[in-house]
Amino acid sequence: MTRFALTLEFDGGPFMGLQRQDHGPSVQQAVEEAAFRVTGEEVRMHAAGRTDSGVHALGMVAHIEVDKPFDAFRLMEALNHHLKPDPVAVLDCRVVADDWHARFSCIGRAYEYRIVNRRAPLTLDKGKAWAVTRPLDAEAMHRAAQALVGLHDFTTFRSVHCQAQSPVKTLDSLTVSRAGEQVIVRTAARSFLHHQVRSMVGTLALVGLGQWAEDDVAAALAAKDRAALGLNAPPDGLYFVRAVYPGDE
Amino acid sequence: MTRFALTLEFDGGPFMGLQRQDHGPSVQQAVEEAAFRVTGEEVRMHAAGRTDSGVHALGMVAHIEVDKPFDAFRLMEALNHHLKPDPVAVLDCRVVADDWHARFSCIGRAYEYRIVNRRAPLTLDKGKAWAVTRPLDAEAMHRAAQALVGLHDFTTFRSVHCQAQSPVKTLDSLTVSRAGEQVIVRTAARSFLHHQVRSMVGTLALVGLGQWAEDDVAAALAAKDRAALGLNAPPDGLYFVRAVYPGDE
User: Fold this and answer.
1) Are residues A89 and A8 in the same domain?
2) Is A124 close to B76, i.e. CB distance below 8 A?
3) A158 contacts A226 by C-beta, under 8 angstroms
4) Are B230 and B203 a contacting pair, CB within 8 Å?
5) pLDDT tens, B200-224?
6) Is B72 inside a domain boundary?
7) Residue A38: DSSP 8-state
8) Would you say residue A102 lies in a domain?
9) CB atoms A126 and B87 under 8 Å
C-alpha cells in the first residue's frame, strides 16, 4: 500500500463540488474513477478542502492509496490520461508517508477571488470571475478587510450548513488589490469555515460599492450573526490556490 | 447616419471566425443581429482584422453605421444586452468620422499567443492556450524570432488561402518570454498575412523544443516557400490584442 499526494487543478464549472455527491458529478468521483481505470482498485480520495459547486482550484492537494506498485510520475501521467475530457488535471504526484493526510496534516490554506469590474459582460472569463458592473473602490475594500484579520468568531461569515465544531478561526491575511479592471482578493488561514471566503468577499464588495461604510465590516463581525452578513459572492470567482504542510518552505 | 467604433472582446471557441460564414456562427453575425435588435436597421460590421475559427480577441476594433440617433454609451449597453449569451462583449463604443474605417484606417495590429508548457492537460485554460507538453526553451525562441523582425517576404509563413496582394510585410516586433509554465509570444505590425502569427509561433516552437536550430528560422524565411514552414500553431492560443489608428497615443 503506497500513499500518493496529488496536486490538482480543476475548473469547478461542470461539477457539483469537490466532494462526492449523490445528485451530480464531482471532482472526487472523476479522480476516483480515473484511479480505478489505472489501478483496477477501488481508490478513495481525501482532499485538503471541500469546495462548492462552481469553485475552481489551481493547487488543491489530495491523497489516494494504491496497493499495486506505481512510479509516481507514471501514475500522474496515467491519471491525467484517464481524467480526459473532465477539466481536472494532476499537476504533481509524489509518495508520502502512510500517516500523511491531505486534510488532517494540512496547516495552511490559501484562496484567491477574482472580480472583473466593468460594464461589459464577461466573455473569456465567463464562469471564471464575478462580474461587478458598478465601480469598486479596491483600496476601501482592503482597509475594511483588515478588521477581519486575526482570531475572531466568524459566525457572521459562516454558512448555516457549516459542520465545523467552532466558529472561532484565525485569519492570517486578507488583501484586496486592483490590476486594471480586475480586483483580486487573496486570503490565507490554517482553515476556513464553509462559505467564509465568499461571505467575506461579498461583504467587502458592499464597501467597495459605497453601500457599506468601512466600519460596518467590523460591526458585522462583532454581531456574530449570519443575518448581519452583507452578501455571499458567487462561486465563479473563487480559486483554491494552495495547501501548506509541515516541512513546506 | 452616425458611424460608431466598437472595441470587442470575444471567446473565439464557439465561432467559425470573425467574418460572416455560410456554414456556421460568426462574431460578425452575432454583432449585426444584436445591432438589428437594438436599432431595427440592417447594420453591416467592418473589423480591423479577420480572425479564424477559435481565435480570441481582447481588443478587436470594428465599426457600424446607424441611421437613428443613438448615444454611444447607451448603444454599447444595448448591444451588450442583446449579445448575451454569445461570448462577445462591447468594451467601448464611440462616434467616429464618416470616413474613419476600422480596417482601412488601421495602422497597427498587435497579437498575443499563449502557450502553457507542462505535462498536465489544460483545465481552466482549455481552448484558451496551446498545451505543449515537452519543455520549451523560450530564450532560444526569442533569439530565433529576431530573424523575422523587419521588412521581409513572408511567403513561408502565409496560408495558401491568403488573399493579400503581396507577401512582403514589415514585422515591427516579435518577442517570446516565459512566466512560470506560460510562454507568451507578442507581435506587432501594420498588418499580417493570413495565418502569419500561427505559422511564426509554430515554427518558433520547433526551435524551443530543440528540433530546429535557431538559424533554421532565417533559412525558412529565406526559402520563401510554404513547404519550408515548421508547424502551424493551433488557434486556441491566439488573441487579437489591439488595433492602432492615427491619433492614438
Assistant:
1) yes
2) no
3) yes
4) yes
5) 999 999 999 999 999 999 999 999 9
6) yes
7) H
8) no
9) yes
Whether residue B170 is found in the same domain as residue B229: yes
Residue A249 has pLDDT above 80, yes or no: no
Q: Map grid coordinates 533569439 to a residue.
A: B143
Q: How many residues does chain A have?
A: 249
> By the CB < 8 Å criterion, does A77 face chain B?
yes
Q: Which of A11, A52, A172, A216 is catalytic?
A: A52
The mean pLDDT value for A58-70 works out to 97
Annotated binding site of B for substrate: 111
Give the residue numbers of B marked as catalytic: 52
Check A121 against B11: CB less than 8 A apart: no
HSE-up of A165 (CA within 13 Å, CB side)?
A: 0
Q: Least CB-CB distance to B11: which of A9, A88, A123?
A: A123
Chain A residues whose beta carbon lies within 8 Å of the beta carbon of residue B76: 119-120
d(CA A202, CA A208) in angstroms, rounded, equals 10
- In Å, how far from its chain's centre is CA A44? 20
Q: Are B53 and B12 in contact (CB under 8 A)?
A: yes
- Please answer whether residues B194 and B163 qualify as being in contact, where contact means their C-beta atoms are separated by less than 8 angstroms: yes
Q: Is B18 on the interface with A (CB under 8 A)?
A: no
> Does A151 lie in the same domain as A222?
yes
Which residues form the domain of B141? 108-244
**Interhelix angle B215-223/B138-145, nearest 10 degrees:** 40
Asked whether residue B211 falls in the same domain as residue B149, the answer is yes
For residue A183, list its beta bridge partners: A115, A178
Q: How far is CA A31 from CA A14, A103, B1, B226, in A?
A: 14, 16, 58, 44
B181 touches chain A (CB under 8 A): no
Domain boundary residue, one of B96, B117, B135: B96
Q: How far apart are CA A141 and CA B30, in angstroms?
A: 37
The answer to the question of residue B184 being in a domain is yes
| pLDDT classification of B163: cutoffs 50, 70, 90 | confident
Q: Is the pLDDT of residue A200 over 80?
A: yes
pLDDT of residue B229: 87
Environment class of residue B50 by beta-carbon count within 10 Å: exposed (0-12), middle (13-18) or buried (19+)?
middle
Q: Say if residue A239 carries a ligand binding annotation.
A: no
What value of ipTM does the predicted structure carry?
0.93
Which pLDDT does position A22 carry in this prediction?
86
Q: Which pLDDT does position A124 carry in this prediction?
A: 97
Cα dihedral B229, B232, B233, B235 sign = positive
Residue A98, strand partner residues: none
- Is A162 found in the same domain as A121? yes
Rounded to the nearest 5 degrees, what angle is found at the Cα of A54, between the Cα atoms of B54 and B85?
A: 45
Interface of B with A in 79-138 (CB under 8 A): 80, 83-84, 87-91, 118-124, 126, 128
Q: Are A81 and A13 in contact (CB under 8 A)?
A: no
- Residue-wise pLDDT for B85-114, tens only, equals 899 999 999 999 999 999 999 999 999 999
